[in-house]
Amino acid sequence: MKKKSWLMLLFIFVLAVGTVLAGCAKDDPKSAGSDTESGKEATGESEGNAEDIQTPVITLDWFVAEEWFQRNWDPDNNLMDKKMLEDIGVELNFTSGSLEKLSAMIASGDIPDLVTLNNQAAQRGVLERSGYVIPLDELLPEHAPEMVVPQSIQDWFRAEDGHYYGLPNYFYAPEDMTDKHFYPTHNTMRVRQDLMNQLGIEASAFDTKEGTIEALRKVKDAKLEYDGFEIVPAYFFYDNLIQFFGADREDEQGNYVDMFREPESLEVYKFLNQLYTERLLPEDSLTLTEAQVQEKVNAGSVFAYTNWRIKWNGLFKSDEEAVFVPAGPIKGDEGNPFHFKPSSLGGWTITMVGKKTEHEARVAKLLEYLSQDQMSLESLFGPKGIGWDYDDGHVKFTEQYLQDYAKDPTAADMKYKGVEWLVNWLDVQPAFPLPTNENERLESVTEAHFSQYSFNTLPFEAVTPTGGMEEAAINTKIEEYRESMGAKMVLAKSEEEVEQLFNSMPSQEEKLGYDKLYEHWNTQFKITKQKLGMDFAWPENQ
């Protein structure tokens, strides 16, 4: 009896002590706000087994291999940092640098918790083979079993060993595409509506080469000026016109086709040569950067141009009557159907997890957190309810958000923007803010007009050789050679000279190693189609 009483007293004592300690832990800020050693130990697999156990705050190191990227963790001033800290108890220590710096880190084996790099960089393959990063097909099922990674992402980024090691941003997963989505393209053409009205030109004139030339002649002959600048008839570029004219990219047997060697490529150079000869296309179109052409567009001195990335919002701010509208696409001689290359469907960067991390479970949960549907919108526009809210399915900014950006855009970015390295554009596209002015409306119309011709180009994106390969060096030499010869063809004295220069190129390219490069292109093209379960990639073959 005495023994039973003693055991009962001991049980009550232990229970009381446990209750007191639990209360202390609940009140102790370290349990939710410090990265103590005991806190690190508590972040293992058991952390999610009991919802009532508070998760200690940890700091994860994240290297971004982009020299321009600078970001400090600032939950006191950045709303998304504050939200992440409160939601999952994670702080991020960002560092950045060049790919060369990443190579040095790989050589020393010093890979942090997370690393982000261009998904075409040679260092990606080195990391996949190094053993320094964790296969995500092992990490995520174990620590974030509810996270769904589209099969196309897994297949697209699958390494030679059968694993995939990273997650991209801005990837267009075909299986997630709906009627609310589209493939945006940079292959566009815009024309000044106010100047067309002044000269009696219809946008339909730009449906053909002949109509385009006639319209541009009217501009040249009118000797128009705008704000003291002479109007340049056109800035047209090869990369856009070759798609307008419809060069094949895959043959009937499913082999990769080099567009540059197609008849439509010669047609483009003859067309550009005619424009240059008639002074409808300036010589500096061969040398100016996109930013420099955009300066001219925003100064009001350009009538027509191709390339979506060149924007005209600066011109609109100073003159709301000076607007650009979509025109074309220009059909080539054969009247080929339009099939345009979209902006990269395979994403821009890839984010990997370092094998030395002490926080596998927490890293997995971070990846899951950043991959949530609404998180892509919040990463771009700030927390829902503070920076924006839904209005009939579209993002509508709050008055405070608009005031902050009107006052100081840089400061507003630092206040609202979150971590964009896992943004999924398919979550953003259907909810994108509706236009609020004529510039935004016409840009939306232009994007819709040209994107109707876009198609899934993932197999074509896979052919580019990565740095360090012999084929990459050959590719660079051939690209430089083609750029040089392209300029000569545009500036040629006659159409016959254009044709002679074009026909002389294959033999010179053979000397540069073209056959080896083409073999790489075709092999990678076919491997990728097989990965994606595609027999043919070119729409005309499907």
Task: Give the end-to-end Cα distance, rounded to a whole number of Å.
Answer: 87 Å
**Main sheet attributes: strand count, strand direction, barrel closure:** 5 strands, mixed
Beta-strand content estimate: 5-15%
Q: Quick one: how many beta strands?
A: 13
Q: What is the overall number of helices?
A: 24
Radius of gyration, whole Å: 28 Å
The averaged pLDDT comes out at: 90
* Low-confidence residue ranges: 1-53
* Widest beta sheet: strand line-up: 2-1-3-11-4
Please describe what this structure looks like:
- A hairpin with a 2-residue loop joins strand 6 (225-226) and strand 7.
- The model is unreliable at 1-53 (pLDDT under 50).
- A five-stranded mixed sheet has the order 2-1-3-11-4. Strands 8-9-5-10 form a four-stranded mixed sheet.
- The chain has 24 helices and 13 strands.
- It starts with a helix and ends in an 11-residue tail after the last helix.
- It is α/β, with parallel strands linked by helices.
- The longest helix is centred in the first third of the chain and has 26 residues, at 2-27.
- The chain is globular.
